[in-house]
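Teaching assistant here, posting this on the class forum so everyone can see the example we discussed in section. The complex has two components, and the goal was to see what a joint structure prediction looks like when all of them are supplied at once.
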Amino acid sequence: MEQGKKAVVLLSGGIDSTTALAMAQADGYQVYGLTFLYGQRQGLEVEAAKRIGRAAKLADHRMVEIDLTIFGGSALTSDMAVPKRRSLEEMRRQVPITYVPARNTIFLSFALAFAESIGAADIFIGVNAIDYSGYPDCRPEFIRAFEAMANLGTKAGIEGRRIKIRTPLIEMSKAQIIRAGTALGVNYTHTTSCYDPDDEGLACGACDSCLIRKKGFAEAGLNDPTRYQEGAE
Amino acid sequence: MEQGKKAVVLLSGGIDSTTALAMAQADGYQVYGLTFLYGQRQGLEVEAAKRIGRAAKLADHRMVEIDLTIFGGSALTSDMAVPKRRSLEEMRRQVPITYVPARNTIFLSFALAFAESIGAADIFIGVNAIDYSGYPDCRPEFIRAFEAMANLGTKAGIEGRRIKIRTPLIEMSKAQIIRAGTALGVNYTHTTSCYDPDDEGLACGACDSCLIRKKGFAEAGLNDPTRYQEGAE
């Protein structure tokens, strides 16, 4: 590929986006990070994203504040209780209350604007459809539909600079993601996953996200660097 | 249709969105307005949208601030000069510099989140493809692609409450829009169109948007209530 080809990478501070970032850089992309502050309870995520961005020496890293709390409707942006200790079967049975309406649509729309303005054609998003925890906007058919729309709705698209939504993790399990990232030198100590951390930032160990993370490290046979709350199983 | 069916209407303060709002209400929808503050030079637009929303007695009217200036690249959000006195042919020849990267994609994404959170399935946007002034994200194929994506990426969509992007103006000329709105009782005095108003809020009369507006009123055979700057032709 061309030297210095630009990509926008959505960076949340979690395992998946951090791995997607490492993959984009391994592919030779010059990475422009994009992180959202969207009223999520875990401000820790944003701090994690900043640390990860600095460690990865991004070409640029933009923080965009968007007020999703006015839309309500999610345990991640309001006071609703985060569900705990659910089996993977339970997680998959329905769209979880941690679903934020149209979140990835909004995130990708900003990434699209950012990509157009810097002349990038590639947008990386660390979604995966295996351990995807029931979110409709993490499915391959959604991503393909977004890409089709992006190429019809932008100057870049209609002028022939085809926008591509890159989802290198989409068919990978959490364990495969962690192994692949570790092979690329990712230090997951910087990442955060918990939906319900305590005041000191320690993970609860019991929300869907913690459970999927723990299972991932266990299946990958790698040490989980997460600091869990005392008493967390 | 059902009594009290909810719709989200994107309301910019211009002729098109104001007419789309009147049409949604005429169809019996309970309207939830959504207006964006996105660093546009014409803060007048937002004031116009507020006046129009109050006059229309909306069920709710949300103002969402999004920082598009960080993306640069448009005469509407930066210091680039707004082109003046262009023919319609010139306007159509290329995507204008007043194009804001991915603007309608971002606007519709927020409308989608708002619609999901209030249980609405219909989103009205006043785009039109006739006097559309060269924007890729005003074309029918973009709207259809957005709708397809929206139904794959939301809980509403996958649970069978089909999201519909309503574009009642898409095949109408500006003159037809103004006639239709006038028939529904719209008072266009409240609306604003100019890309480059002066400090007193008077329209320049020469930017693409003013030219299309003036032509619309002229062709509709209706009085243009716009206050133009002294010396504007």
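For the discussion questions: Chain B has one domain: 6-220. The interface with chain A takes residues 62, 64-68, 70-73, 95, 99-106, 109-110, 112-114, 116-117, 136-137, 139, 141-142, 145-146, 148-150, 152-155, 157-159 of chain B (CB under 8 Å). Think about how each of these relates to the inputs above.
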